[in-house]
TrEMBL record:
SUPFAM superfamilies per UniProt: MetI-like (SSF161098)
GO cellular component: plasma membrane
Organism: Paenibacillus apii
Coarse class of the protein's main subcellular location: membrane
GO molecular function: ABC-type sulfate transporter activity; molybdate ion transmembrane transporter activity
Ranges of residues in domain ABC transmembrane type-1: 58-261
Membrane topology: Multi-pass membrane protein
Assembly mode: The complex is composed of two ATP-binding proteins (CysA), two transmembrane proteins (CysT and CysW) and a solute-binding protein (CysP).
Pfam families the record matches: BPD_transp_1 (PF00528)
Protein name: Molybdenum transport system permease
Source taxon at top rank: Bacteria
Compartment(s): Cell membrane; Membrane
Lineage: Bacteria, Bacillati, Bacillota, Bacilli, Bacillales
Length: 271
């Protein structure tokens, strides 16, 4: 069997299949977006991306995605620490539930947030009594972004903590270092690549979120209209060029983030 798989014909077939898969499902759709953006000329493209509503949706998306990423980095690191360093009843169940946002349709996540925090819910009613508005406002969008990007930081930090040599911490304690200093000088540098890489992936994923956000956002331009919902609205309004123009901004940001992650990983291997 191994000799058959090593045959040049099989090798060429596997490589060709993988290449076709990559081109058809990734390269062609991306090229299609860029083509549609400039199909009516550069002037039309410039007008589409300079539309105030479009820019406000992009800036709002960037700001809320950054807030969601910061929350994910902090909470994700803490949860990864608990899952690796402590043993308690239900630990395995909690560890398996971390990946739940990957398994659930994002629209289901948005519905869960709507039912839990909506005006008719117990929490939503209590928040309204205190003068706090959650659903159909920016807090709900941030919560939706946090939900769908929840596993990234946890799964990036966990293996780094598991690979950390306990003797390094013990040596630091033996030399008289305090717990805070050990964490800052020994543990945090080991977790930092996972925190940064996971945070950047979470940020990139939050930029493109639609299913969970569309159910809890009020879609008010400049206040709750995010880029993904704006793109959907442009398509529904029979303006695919405008939708593609905003999509290019998100695509370019995602490419930049992935390039930064790869550069950071390459430097980490060299170090």
């Amino acid at each position: 069997m191994n000799s058959l798989l090593r045959h040049k014909g099989w090798t060429w077939g596997f490589r060709t299949t993988i290449l076709l898969y990559f081109v058809v499902l990734i390269v062609l759709p991306i090229l299609g977006v860029y083509y549609n953006s400039f199909s009516l000329g550069f002037k039309n493209f410039a007008e589409s991306i300079s539309d105030p509503i479009a820019w406000k949706s992009v800036l709002l998306t960037l700001r809320l995605a950054l807030v969601a990423t910061i929350i994910n980095v902090v909470l994700g690191t803490m949860i990864a620490w608990v899952l690796v360093r402590y043993k308690f009843p239900g630990r395995s169940l909690l560890n398996s539930m971390v990946d739940l946002p990957f398994a659930l349709p994002t629209a289901v996540g948005g519905l869960m947030i709507l039912l839990l925090l909506g005006p008719g819910s117990l929490i939503g009613g209590a928040a309204e009594a205190l003068g706090l508005e959650i659903v159909f406002h920016q807090p709900a969008i941030v919560i939706a972004m946090v939900f769908v990007t929840f596993p990234f930081v946890i799964r990036a930090v966990q293996p780094l903590l598991e690979e950390l040599d306990p003797s390094e911490e013990e040596a630091a304690y033996t030399m008289g270092a305090t717990g805070v200093r050990v964490f800052r000088k020994v543990i945090l540098p080991s977790m930092a690549p996972g925190m940064i890489g996971g945070g950047m992936l979470a940020f990139s994923r939050a930029l493109a979120e639609f299913g969970a956000v569309v159910l809890v956002a009020g879609n008010i331009p400049g206040r709750t209209l995010v880029s993904s919902v704006f793109i959907y609205g442009e398509v529904e309004s029979d303006n695919p060029t405008g939708a593609a123009a905003v999509s290019i901004i998100l695509l370019t940001l995602s490419f930049l983030i992935l390039w930064l992650i790869n550069m950071a990983q390459m430097r980490g291997r060299r170090a």
